[in-house]
Amino acid sequence: MKSYFKKFSIVFVMLLAVIGFGTIQDGTVANAATVGEALTAPESGWKRYDDTNSNFIRTGNWYTDGSSYAYNGSVRCAKTTNEALKFKFYGTKLRIIAAKGLGQSEKVSITIDGVSNLYSDSSSRVQYQSLEYEISGLTDSIHTVEIKSVANGYWQVDAVDINNNGNLIPYNESISLDKSSMSLKVGDSQQLTATTPAGAQVVWSSSNESIAKYDSTTGRVVAVGEGTCTITAIINDGSGISATCTVNVANKTEPTNPEPEDSYNIVNIAHAKGTNTNNPGGEVTIIFHGTADTTLSLVKTADVKDVWIGDNFTYTLVITNTGTKTAKAVVVNDPAPNHIDFNVSGVTTTQGTVDSSSTTKNIIVNVGDILPGGTVTIKIPSTVIA
């Protein structure tokens, strides 16, 4: 019988030891600190942020208590109801770590996503790094927190613990792109720049990389194929904060009338010569395409820009005496270029006559004398041939 009680006592003591150490969850021992206890280090599954973290935003008058008992050797403290501490975090649970003692606030308000609760910093004895408040079961997303006292007395936040998969994020964190949309042709690219808080890492993605994708090396959106897609830039801190740009990609348009490979220029030069003048030449160019297209310009002009086989058009020659003396016995000689036949019977001139030796390949007009400032206009009907 004594042996039985001895064994029972040993088993009972072992069971108490296990219960005192922690609770059993899924076959492993998990820590289970409770509100009011001292918690000088984050438990398994948590990580701690000191109150000196730059992501904490304070308003009002705060001072630093350099106690070695505080987490990391110091803690920021407030004295009145005018101070507030704000921060944002990404995660599902939160713990507030602070010192408590006599004369401290009995009512500290913590508001998470607009929902407020109270906890106390007051205690009959001083205890640093005390677990003052805890909440769990939050959505796995960004949460906004504001802490302030609603009663007289000192209060503080020495540190916060967040679940391992969460993290503090800048209170005013945001991301923006310099373009909300862009239109590109296939093969083209355009710069797209994100603006973020200092030090933030950005991950880029495309809703359809067969349409457009982001080249992180060059910082440009590259158009791949016709269609519409979305380029997304997201801050890589688990917060899910992002910005988007809509990209419209169109195929490159080809010229509606590309020049055939056998196209070339038709150059037509006419000369006007008098017995006492120089021998100026008037040139006009037509782009000949065999079966289409043409451009006309310069001193000798045509009433069309493009011609095709079988087309009829008119050359116009304007001869002007710009000198100070009469031009004597002026003769105009206009040889036809390739692919052009002149209509001899249709040639007209405002002065002189068409020489009887003129043919479909060469027009000669005996203009005669042209006074200073005088102008003679000759029109030559023409036909495009193969």
From TrEMBL:
Q: Which domain of life is it from?
A: Bacteria
The UniProt record lists the BIG2 domain at 171-245
Pfam families recorded for this chain? Big_2 (PF02368), DUF11 (PF01345)
Q: Which UniProt keywords apply?
A: Signal
**Signal peptide stretch:** 1-32
Task: Say yes or no: keyword Metal-binding present.
Answer: no
InterPro entries, A to Z = Big_2, DUF11_rpt, Invasin/intimin_cell_adhesion, OmcB-like_DUF11
* Signal is among the record's keywords: yes
NCBIfam families to which the protein is assigned, alphabetical:
B_ant_repeat (TIGR01451)
What name is this protein filed under? Answer: BIG2 domain-containing protein
Record the organism.
Clostridium saccharoperbutylacetonicum N1-4(HMT)
